Structures are given as structure tokens and as C-alpha cells.
From TrEMBL:
Function comment: Transfers the 4'-phosphopantetheine moiety from coenzyme A to a Ser of acyl-carrier-protein.
Protein name: Holo-[acyl-carrier-protein] synthase
HAMAP family registered for this protein in UniProt: AcpS
Subcellular location: Cytoplasm
Similarity-based family: Belongs to the P-Pant transferase superfamily. Gsp/Sfp/HetI/AcpT family. Belongs to the P-Pant transferase superfamily. AcpS family.
Species of provenance: Jeotgalibacillus salarius
Principal subcellular localisation of the protein: cytoplasm
Annotated InterPro entries: 4-PPantetheinyl_Trfase_dom, 4-PPantetheinyl_Trfase_dom_sf, ACPS, P-Pant_transferase_sf, Ppantetheine-prot_Trfase_dom
Taxonomy, superkingdom: Bacteria
EC number: 2.7.8.7
Lineage: Bacteria, Bacillati, Bacillota, Bacilli, Bacillales
Protein residues bound to Mg(2+): 8, 58
Primary gene name: acpS
Amino acid sequence: MIHGIGLDIVEIDRIAKLLERQPKISSRVLTEREQKQFELLGKNRKIEFLAGRFAVKEAYAKALGCGIGRELSFQNIEILKEDSGRPYIYNSDYKVHVSITHTKEYAAAQVVIEKTGE
């Protein structure tokens, strides 16, 4: 049974400008493991990576119905990838389906959360 769906889109240029003004934004949005992946990337790929992870975390929070804020922070959501490259939410209490896409101008993510064990 579907628990919730979430969708988010982020302007790549907005993230690039934010990262330029506030370099520590990556450590606010990304978990420690995500930050390690981020540091291995080139400049343009870093921006895409951060924008994509931001979009997934926002979409996940929307799917849960709470948003980012009091109940859930960026640090509570960790996106890892399978050997195939497929992204997934680590350590979720739900079965979560994640899709991330990028264009030159946007990063977007869709999340579908299924209830399990009921």
C-alpha cells in the first residue's frame, strides 16, 4: 500500500550560487557518507550531486507528510546507491522507491513510499 509520494525540483544554478556563498551548505544537507562521495567529484558534478540529494530529501519529507523542519532534518535522510547505481534511502522504516534526474538547468527527484508489514 502506498504511504505517500513526493516530488521536488531544484534549479542547478541556485545550488551553484548557494554553494559559492555558503560552502558549508554541503555539510548541512549531506550526511557524512554522502559528503565523502561529494568530495570525490569535480566542480560541476558536485553541484549536480548536491542538487539531486537536496531534491530527494525534500521529496522524501513530502512523501512522509512532514517536510524538512521540526520532525525531520536533512541529516536524518541518507541516499546511497546500489552497485547498479540505483539510489535508495538508507535505513528507512518503509520500502522507498527513489528516482533522480538532472538536466543542465534542473535536478528533480520523485519518491514513493510503501508501507510494509501491515
